[in-house]
Amino acid sequence: MVLVDTSAWVDLFRNRRTECAARLRALLDEQRPFALTPVIAQELIQGAADEGEFALLDDYLIGQTMLLPQHPLDTHRSAARLYFDCLRHGFTPRSTVDCLIAQIAIEHAVPLLHDDRDFARIAKVAPNLEFA
Question: How many domains does the chain have?
């Protein structure tokens, strides 16, 4: 199981020739298991260009495996801790959502497929965060 971040999907949808997009394409072609979080699905669906794309994304993404916070309050508190620890190490994550996604990946012990430089920085304070 791989947790696929918004950034990986955006690379794929925009036909970017990135290593991340190639890995996601291979994952899908080989029908290997992957998961999203509800906030990743939200980010993708809300980025739709029109009603048709909104409906297409909504139908496809909502049917995928979702990784949920194991203990919602504790998960969010741990994500806040990740953000705080990043600040203490001289780095301000651009999105608190990235800290939440990282925390969910850690809780479920799944690697994260992403194309977002913030995750590499978050991993410096969260050594249990693994990448696909």
Answer: 2
Q: In whole angstroms, what is the distance from residue 34 CA to residue 12 CA?
A: 15
> Is the distance from CB of 100 to CB of 122 less than 8 angstroms?
no
Verdict on whether the full-model pTM lies above 0.85: yes
- The pLDDT tens digits for 56-102 are 999 999 999 999 999 999 999 999 999 999 999 999 999 999 999 99
Running DSSP on this structure, what letter comes out for residue 66?
B
- Residue 94 backbone dihedrals phi, psi, to 5 degrees: -70, -20
Separation CA 74–CA 8 (nearest Å): 27
15 and 46, same domain (yes or no): yes
Between CA 12 and CA 17 the distance in angstroms is 8
